[in-house]
Amino acid sequence: MLSALRSGIRYASKMGRHTSELRAWLQGEECEAKSWRDLHTGVAEAFILLSRSKELEDADDIYGSAEKRKKSSGETYPAHAYRELSNGRFLFLHMSADQHRKRIQKLLEILELPSGLLEVEYRGQKYKIP
Questions:
Q1: Using omega within 30 degrees of 0 as the cis cutoff, is the peptide bond preceding 130 cis?
Q2: Beta strands 29-30; 125-129: pairing state
Q3: Helix (H), strand (E) at residue 84
Q4: Where are the alpha helices (DSSP H) in 1-130?
Q5: What is the tally of helices (H) and strands (E) in the chain?
Q6: Is residue 82 a contact partner of residue 91, using CB atoms and an 8 Å limit?
Q7: Of 23, 25, 88, 101, which has the highest C-beta tally within 10 A?
Q8: CA–CA separation, 94 vs 27, rounded Å?
Q9: Who wins on pLDDT, 122 or 65?
C-alpha cells in the first residue's frame, strides 16, 4: 500500500507545473510533491495502482473528460482545473489548499492508512494526515 502511495506521488509530481511552499514526508521520507495538487493527484493514483478506482470515483471529483464540471454561472471550468490520471479519467483540482488537505485526508482514511503517515509543511503550518 505504501509503495503504491509513493509511486502515485512520484508520478503526480512529474506533472506539476507550479511549486509552492509545500514539503511533504511519507513515513519520514521526503516526497517529491511540490504542491497540494501533486499530493492529491498522487493519492488518487495510489487508488488506481491498488485497483480501487471505483472507491476513488465514489469519494472524489472524477470525470470522464476535462471541462465537465460547471461553475454556478453555468460556465465550465478550464482544462487546467483538472489533471488526467493514468486510467484516462480526470481529477478536478480547482480548490483551496484546505480543501485539498481534507480530500487527501478522506482518501487516506478510505485506504485505512495509519494516523500521521503523511506529514506536510505548508506556509509555516505542519499537518499530519490522516
A1: yes
A2: unpaired
A3: strand 82-84
A4: 2-13, 36-49, 53-59, 97-110
A5: 4, 7
A6: yes
A7: 101
A8: 28
A9: 122
String of b and e for 84-103 (b: at least 16 CB within 10 Å)? ebeeebbbbbebebeebbeb
Mean pLDDT confidence for 84-109: 95
User: b/e for 39-73, b at 16 or more Cβ within 10 A?
Assistant: bbbbbbbbbbbbebbeebeebbbbeeebeeeeeee
C-alpha cell recorded at residue 39: 499530493
19, pLDDT greater than 90: no
End-to-end CA distance of the chain: 15
pTM of the model: 0.90
Contact 4, 43 (CB under 8 A): no
- Taking the C-alpha atoms of residue 34 and residue 20, their distance in angstroms, rounded to an integer, is 6
